[in-house]
Amino acid sequence: MQRDIYDEDHEAFREVVKEFLRRYATNEKREQWERDGEIDRATMLAAGEQGLIGLSVPEEFGGAGMLQDYRFRAIVNEEVIGAGQGSLAGAFGIQDDLAVPYLVHMGTQAQKEKWLPRMATGEVLGALAMTDPGAGSDLRGVTTNAKKVDGGYILNGAKTFISSGKTADIVVTFVKTGEGNRPDAFSLLIVENGMEGFDHGKKLSKMGFHGWDTAELSFTDVFIPDENLIGGVEGKGFVQLMMNLPLERLSIGVCAAAAGEAAFKWTLEYTSNREAFGQAVADFQNTRFRLADMATTVDVLWAYNDRAMELYRQGKLSADEAAKVKFWSTEREWELLDMGVQLHGGYGYITEYPIARAFLDARVHRIYGGTNEVMREIVARAVTGRK
Ligand SMILES: Cc1cc2nc3c(=O)[nH]c(=O)nc-3n(C[C@H](O)[C@H](O)[C@H](O)COP(=O)(O)OP(=O)(O)OC[C@H]3O[C@@H](n4cnc5c(N)ncnc54)[C@H](O)[C@@H]3O)c2cc1C
Predict the structure, then answer these.
(1) Does residue 265 carry a pLDDT above 90?
(2) 201, pLDDT greater than 90
(3) Helix axes 354-362, 319-343, angle to 10 degrees
(4) CA separation for the pair 98, 117 (Å, rounded)
């Protein structure tokens, strides 16, 4: 089904992204990133130079100024994921959807001036650390804590599963600054790489997304200056997270739609060229019906995500609508990839093929950004009016 959310500027930008992929994202590069567990900094700097990251950074700080407009980010996701470069898309997303928004929308003027220009160029990479080893879904169970001292905070505790945790230069970190677990007991602090007492544990070995690191972080009496308190006001961390989570969930929905579409295209191409019993696999009635199902699911995925992007642009994407988009899209993505793997036969299980890599990458979409069970809880609360 034809989509109508993009105009000429978006399509021109799509060409920039495609050219970037031709120049900087070869298969050899991907294999290197997967071996290293990170995207090399030169590629991130090139992405900054070509305007593929820092899209929501205001123009005065060197970005594209797309504050609430996710369409350019969607094009990056469509093209990069469609090229079989899921890890690269993930690395861009960690910067643009997880880290940058906390500075753009909630940072003080001084924080914006200090970090945003270099985040737009890729000189400074960010990460977001919410999850403690003992608390993921239940964020109010976080025990990583920062005690107020003269001129700043003393931070102690640990975080786990942090995307780009090892490669990031700054980590927006969710910590307890008050007593109990009321929303105003939490704050967000910028922890800088190299601060004394800030250590990276091991890179965790994971099922997919091999091209960016997932790390454990530990904090032992780390002094964080007052100027690194996001927004400059203590006790706002929980509200700040809630403000950005709809964007994070929309971004996962859009990635899921992009991966679902890629799954359909790869499968159509593969089954059209593969022969069995003297005919193309695409000519078996079973394959034809599955391809018809896949194409229709992709259309619905985009119709839903396009609408969500429009609501986000208007500032109207509520937490429960974003939660619906996240869980529904990632579950359709999973079905599409599973079907794609099946129709590729044995080759679908071989990670040389993009369908196999995308399948492994996709599994975490139903877990991070809030598990799909937690998403359903949010939606259930909204539709029933009951806690
Ligand atoms: C590859 C990867 C990257 C990640 N990146 C980041 C990152 O950059 N930053 C970050 O902060 N975190 C990150 N995470 C952490 C991720 O967000 C958490 O793993 C996720 O929120 C789930 O938390 P948990 O692992 O503690 O699971 P738990 O909360 O222990 O959940 C275990 C199970 O219980 C279910 N459950 C929990 N509560 C409820 C409930 N109320 N109702 C029904 N079921 C429930 C869950 O759905 C799940 O099935 C990442 C995780 C992975 C795997």
Answers:
(1) yes
(2) no
(3) 150
(4) 17
Residues 246, 243: Cα–Cα separation, whole Å:
7
pLDDT, one tens digit per residue, over 47-76 is 999 999 999 999 999 999 988 899 999 999
Query: Which among 170, 368, 375, 387 is the best mutation to test ligand 1's pocket, defined by most ligand atoms within 8 Å of the CB?
Result: 368
pLDDT digits (tens, 9 = 90+) for 8-37: 999 999 999 999 999 999 999 999 999 999
149 three-class SS: strand
For the record, the structure tokens of 158 come out as: 């640990």
Place of tokens 């794609």: 340
Beta strands in 169-280 (DSSP E): 170-176, 186-192, 198-203, 214-225, 275-276, 279-280
- Going along the chain from its start, the domains and CATH numbers come out as 8-124 (1.10.540.10), 127-235 (2.40.110.10), 239-384 (1.20.140.10)
Confidence label for 203 from pLDDT (cuts 50, 70 and 90)? confident
Residue whose entry in the numeric block shows the structure tokens 């007492």: 197
Which residue has tokens 């690191």?
Answer: 213
The answer to whether the CB of 268 is under 6 A from ligand 1 is no
Residue-averaged pLDDT of the chain: 97
Residue 163 Cβ inside 6 Å of ligand 1? The answer reads yes
CB-based burial label for 74 (10 Å; 0-12, 13-18, 19+): buried
